[in-house]
TrEMBL record:
InterPro entries (alphabetical): NAD(P)-bd_dom_sf (IPR036291)
SUPFAM superfamilies reported in the protein's UniProt record: NAD(P)-binding Rossmann-fold domains
Keyword annotations of the record: Oxidoreductase
Keyword Oxidoreductase attached: yes
Top-level lineage group: Eukaryota
Keyword set includes Oxidoreductase: yes
Molecular function in Gene Ontology: oxidoreductase activity
Listed name of the protein: Uncharacterized protein
Length: 199
């Protein structure tokens, strides 16, 4: 995050979600969907992950400490013909892949086409201050605050920080950077003193 917030313009964080987020639900007391099994569990976990992308986008876009330093938006790339389904074990989904295979180039985007909205959000000059938004086909669709529960987004953010121990890691990295900077400064001073004595 430090690398994204130190530039002349706000850094840009882009989350690739999916329209499938609409089917997602998040239970912070059972994030692993332990009450489900098999294909149903895998499907619900996928939906949850896509909703999590939207929740993360919304929460980060409202963080006061990152205001004017970083933007965060998300997007639906559409149905893209990639090899993402090569290990699918969901019968109906796997069957549909083969049924539509002869027509895939007519009804699905190429990887290049699927990447366009990501590229647009990363490079479009007019979006330099746009944050907390959901895009599809290089077009604004909605503010994330209008399509998700902001309270849940904040709670999910806090839980994620705790689960990942990010605060502790950040403090450790900061301490390491301070120590490294101090050592470099001391080395430079010592070198200058040695050069001065040599003269």
């Amino acid at each position: 995050m430090d690398n994204l917030t130190n530039g002349p313009e706000p850094g840009r964080i882009i989350n690739v979600t999916s329209v499938a987020y609409k089917n997602g639900s998040v239970d912070l007391n059972d994030i692993h969907k332990s009450s489900l099994n098999g294909e149903e569990k895998l499907t619900e976990l996928y939906y949850q992950s896509k909703l999590a992308n939207v929740l993360f986008t919304d929460a980060l876009s409202r963080k006061e400490e990152y205001k004017d330093k970083v933007t965060c938006n998300c997007l639906n790339p559409g149905v893209v013909h990639t090899s993402i389904d090569r290990y699918s074990t969901i019968p109906l989904y796997a069957l549909s892949v083969y049924m539509y295979k002869p027509f895939q180039w007519f009804i699905m985007k190429t990887p290049k086409q699927g990447a366009q909205t990501s590229i647009y959000l990363a490079a479009e000059p007019s979006l330099v201050k746009t944050t907390g938004s959901y895009y599809d086909d290089c077009s604004f669709v909605s503010k994330t605050s209008d399509i998700c529960d902001c309270d849940l987004a904040d709670e999910f953010w806090d839980k994620s920080i705790a689960w990942s121990q990010l605060d502790r890691r950040h403090k450790e990295m900061h301490q390491e950077n301070v120590a490294l900077s101090t050592n470099q400064t001391n080395t430079k001073i010592q070198s200058m003193e040695n050069n001065s004595q040599a003269r």
